[in-house]
C-alpha cells in the first residue's frame, strides 16, 4: 500500500510539473503547446488599428526571410520605368501591408465614426464573404498581391491572391474616366507615371466593401489617389489619399510599405462563402484554434 501511494504521488507530481512548467518552456522557445490557439498575425495588425507586424514582414505570402544585406537596385523596363512585378523568367509577389488606413486623427463625420466603431465589434466584412474590395483593401489579403504589367496593352493588373481571388485593371492609355460610371467594387483606375512613381486616380466605387480590414466606411463619392514607388528591389512604397465628402470632413492620407517575396506566385484559391471562422469574424474573439480538424 505504501509503495502504491508513493507511485501515485510521483505521477501526480510529474503531471503537475508538465502542466505548470512545459508551457513556459515552450513559450521561451517560441512554440505553442499542442491544442492551444495560434496567434493570428493578420488579426493582430487589425486590432492595433495600424500597420501590424505582418505588414512589415510581408504577410502570409511573406514566409521567406527578410533580404540579407543591401537590396538590389529597382528592376526597370527598357523605357526606364520601374517594374512593379516580376522580371522575365522570375516570379514574386508583394506581401500584405496594413490593418487600418485610419487612425485617431482621421476626420470622420459623426455617422461614419459610429459605423466604424460598430464594425470593429461586429466584423461582418464583405471581403471575408467572397466580395471584392477596392482601393487599399486589396493589399491586405494575408497571402499577398501579384502585379502583372502588360505594356503592349497599356494596362496593369493587380490580383488579390486570397479572399475572392479577383483583380482590377489600371489603364495607362491616357484616357479620362468614362462618363456616367456605374458604381462597382473596384471602380475605374487611370494611371500615369511621374518620374519613378505610378500615380493612379480611382473613382466610381460602390458602397459594398470596406476600405480596410478595420472597417473604415465610405460613400459613392469616394475618390482615391494612389502612388506606387518601388524604391529598391524589395520595397514598394504605397501612398493613398482619401477624398469622400460623404463620410469625412476633410481629405486625409496614409503611407506604408510592402515587401517583395521572390519565388512565389498566384495560386489556386477557393473562397467558400459559408466556410466561416465565426468566433473570429463575429464578436470580440482575436484568434481561432487552427489545430482542430475542420470538416467542410
Quick summary:
The protein is an alpha+beta fold and 296 residues long. Helix content is 19%, strand content 22%.
Low-confidence stretches: 1-65
Molecular shape = globular
Helix content: 10-25%
- Number of self-contained structural domains: 1
- In whole angstroms, the N-to-C terminal distance is 52 Å
Per DSSP, the total helix count is 5
Proportion of strand residues: 15-25%
Structural class: alpha+beta
In total, the number of strands is: 9
Order of strands in the sheet with most strands:
1-9-8-7-6-5-4-3-2
The largest sheet, given as strand count, sense and whether it forms a barrel, is: 9 strands, mixed
Global Rg:
23 Å
Mean pLDDT: 77
One letter per element, helices H and strands E, the order comes to HHHEHEEEEEEEEH
Description:
The chain has five helices and nine strands; from the N terminus they run αααβαββββββββα. A hairpin with a 2-residue loop joins strand 5 and strand 6 (197-203). It is globular, with a radius of gyration of 23 Å. The termini are far apart. With 296 residues, it is α+β, with helices and mostly antiparallel strands. Helices cover 19% and strands 22% of the residues. It has one domain. A nine-stranded mixed sheet has the order 1-9-8-7-6-5-4-3-2.
Topology, element by element:
Layout: H1 2-28, H2 41-47, H3 53-57, E1 92-94, H4 110-121, E2 145-150, E3 155-160, E4 167-171, E5 188-194, E6 197-203, E7 223-232, E8 235-243, E9 252-262, H5 278-281
Keywords summarizing the entry:
disordered N terminus; alpha+beta; 296 residues
Amino acid at each position: 500500500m505504501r509503495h502504491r501511494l508513493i507511485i501515485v504521488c510521483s505521477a501526480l507530481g510529474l503531471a503537475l510539473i508538465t502542466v505548470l512548467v512545459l508551457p513556459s518552456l515552450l513559450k521561451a522557445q517560441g512554440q505553442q503547446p499542442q491544442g492551444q490557439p495560434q496567434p493570428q498575425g493578420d488579426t493582430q495588425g487589425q486590432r492595433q488599428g495600424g500597420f501590424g507586424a505582418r505588414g512589415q514582414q510581408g504577410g502570409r505570402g511573406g514566409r521567406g526571410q527578410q533580404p540579407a544585406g543591401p537590396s538590389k537596385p529597382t528592376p526597370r523596363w527598357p523605357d526606364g520605368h520601374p517594374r512593379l512585378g516580376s522580371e522575365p523568367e522570375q516570379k514574386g509577389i508583394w506581401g500584405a501591408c496594413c490593418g487600418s488606413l485610419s487612425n485617431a486623427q482621421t476626420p470622420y463625420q459623426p455617422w461614419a465614426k459610429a459605423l466604424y466603431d460598430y464594425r470593429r465589434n461586429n466584423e461582418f466584412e464583405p471581403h471575408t464573404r467572397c466580395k471584392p474590395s477596392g482601393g487599399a483593401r486589396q493589399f491586405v489579403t494575408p497571402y499577398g498581391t501579384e502585379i502583372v504589367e502588360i505594356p503592349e496593352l497599356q494596362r496593369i493588373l493587380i490580383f488579390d491572391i486570397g479572399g475572392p481571388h479577383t483583380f482590377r485593371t489600371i489603364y495607362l492609355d491616357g484616357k479620362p474616366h468614362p462618363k456616367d460610371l456605374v458604381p462597382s467594387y473596384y471602380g475605374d483606375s487611370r494611371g500615369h507615371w511621374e518620374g519613378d512613381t505610378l500615380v493612379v486616380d480611382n473613382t466610381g466605387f460602390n458602397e459594398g466593401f470596406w476600405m480596410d480590414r478595420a472597417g473604415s466606411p465610405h460613400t459613392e463619392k469616394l475618390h482615391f489617389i494612389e502612388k506606387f514607388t518601388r524604391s529598391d528591389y524589395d520595397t514598394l512604397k504605397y501612398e493613398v489619399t482619401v477624398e469622400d465628402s460623404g463620410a469625412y470632413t476633410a481629405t486625409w492620407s496614409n503611407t506604408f510599405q510592402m515587401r517583395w517575396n521572390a519565388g512565389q506566385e498566384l495560386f489556386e484559391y477557393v473562397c467558400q462563402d459559408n466556410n466561416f471562422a465565426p468566433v473570429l469574424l463575429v464578436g470580440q474573439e482575436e484568434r481561432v484554434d487552427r489545430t482542430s480538424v475542420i470538416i467542410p
